[in-house]
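Fold it.
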Amino acid sequence: MSFIGLLAFIFILGAAVVLHEFGHFIVAKLLKMRVETFSVGFGPRLFGARWGTTDYRVSLIPLGGYVKLGGDESNAAVEGAGESDIPVNERFDLRPRWQKFLVMVAGPTMNILTALAIVWAGAMIAGVPVSPASPTIRYVKPQGVAEAAGLRAGDRVLSFNGKENPSWERILNDVRLSPEQPLPMAVERDGQRVELSVKPTKYTEEGESIGDIDFRPDYGELPVLITMVVAGSPAEQAGLKVNDRVIEVNGEAVRDEFDVRSKIQAHPNQAVRLTVERDGQRQELSAQTNAEGKIGFAPESVLPQRRIGPVAALGYAFERNLEVLRMTGAAFAQIFRGQRSARESLSGPIGIAQASSNAAAKFGWAGVFAMLGFLSLNLGIVNLLPIPVLDGGAIFLLGVEAVLGWIGVRMSMTIRERIQQVGMVMLLLLMGFVITNDLVKVATRWRASDDDKPAVTQPAK
């Protein structure tokens, strides 16, 4: 991991934790409750500062954080014992249940709002991608899984994996979640509905199995940029550079990256003329293809974006985050059904660090904030689960106490402490699993990189 990647990880994880704890903190303060400690991390105090009645600190174990509320000793095993001389009107444990509920739910709520705000801001700044609804197929990879399933260019997708009139984003997400699993789909061809089944190809990305499908939709005419030029290739010798825009091949205009590929590959062992635009100026270059019709560069279509207003951007943010939750839920369902490996799907701090580093390297600040939004959303939802030690567990216990109160029974502090201890053991076991899993993934990638080093670099396109 690079130094920039490490900084990205610290920023992303730190921001997600601080925002979560700030939710608890600010609601407690507004309700005039004593906040004894605001800690980033668990365990012994490393450094910090005391302001008023609150100790703001960084603690040794950087796997979360906590807010210690005056009079709340339910998490004493984790947070340490609190002060004994707290005024009655500032004690959390003496407040009505509705106030306790507001404090507990505020942390996850802050994470969810952060995820919404990041997508909303991105939509306002850069616009939103234009994703074809009920997309028409533009390209089918020869001898790929889509062609084997019977798909043809010009087919219009009517349904995919049980979803009628799916967007292209929905199709891609279902494909990524379902490597080597048959997915039903229906297309319109010559006015007729044709039922098909396609099985996505399986490949590994950052230690996780992901599905890919060998067809693409028709976006219309798109700009095509060169994203990579192989060193020493005919493309480099011809003078092609990254970020050149390909306008024509042999005098014929190109619509997208598939046009570029097909027009070049149609002339193996021949010279092809490429018209490119660079810094606003057109240039015509010539390169010799190899026997496979490649010259050593990678073209990529620039997908269209459209501007929207603040209300539409908010709707888009809700849709995107709901889709992330749908995919997360579907992935967990596959784990429980035995269709997906927990080792491949679950990541701990090391996995988050690697993903954060990759996001920063590939997409800069946009990638960093996208990763923050994703992590923040998942942190908020996971914390709402009714598991002891988590906020959802505390909210669940409030509900149990309310029900017991109706029948005149009170839950003792001893029972609460035992429940919290069980939750802490469960949490530690989970953390041990995901950290071990991360280390296994790293070791596997190292071995694979040593075994798969190519002797000769092959040209890309």
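The two ends are 29 Å apart (CA to CA).
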